[in-house]
Amino acid sequence: MEIKFMSTLLLCLLWMSAASSPLQPDHHKARRFSGGANESVTVTINLQQSVSTIGPHFVGVTIDSRRVWERWDSLDFTSKKVQNMARALTPTYFRLGGTMADAMTYVLGSATDLPESTVALNHSKFNMTEDQWVTVNEFSRTVGWDFIMDLNALKRNADGSWNPDNARQLLQFSADRNYTIAGFELGNEYESYQSVFNTTLSPGQLSKDMVTLQSLLAEFPQYYSAFIVGPESGDGDPAHFRG
After folding, report:
1. Which of 11, 43, 46, 180 has the most other CB atoms within 10 Å of its CB?
2. Is 173:108 a contact under the CB 8 Å cutoff?
3. Is there a cis peptide before residue 221, judged by omega within 30 degrees of 0?
4. In this entry, which stretches build a coiled coil (predicted)?
5. Domains (range + CATH), the chain
């Protein structure tokens, strides 16, 4: 079941309101929970000492890349209500990414000018238009979120290396408009490539591609210091990161 964007923000706000309630001054709190017919568990919490402290960006929001071609119009980024709720979540990371990020081409022009074969909305290839990219970045800028973009890792050269040309076009377009992008991700859940895209990407090649991405960001002073997140694994199998 997919939760609408506005509803997700509202749920986050309600959660934060509850989580921000001050702790009671008790030294310890104990609770007993019934774990079954003949089992109970006692949990003791020390409220005088923290185990660790998380950073201010502990809230993150992701819009799945699939939404770029599936029900994009249902996301009203211009809604004042959504923008006001979004501002209340700052500071937060806003990621556009997911499985279909590795099928996405960034088209910096009118989608109506593209050949039909290019704009076909299928699971092997689809486009993110200039208007969509502008909308996401303007929203992020307006509400003060820190944007993270999941780049297409399956654009490959003949030798199997990552081809950064389309990503370079996207960065140039963004730099010309002074868009702030906090971080970049290259690809999504590499272990699923075989089942979703009928291809594979070795850990060794992935490491080389990360170096290529780092070199690409160095071409743009505005994005030179942007962080790179990943590699990402959906099942956590360490075998995907060896070799």
Report:
1. 180
2. yes
3. no
4. none
5. 53-241 (3.20.20.80)
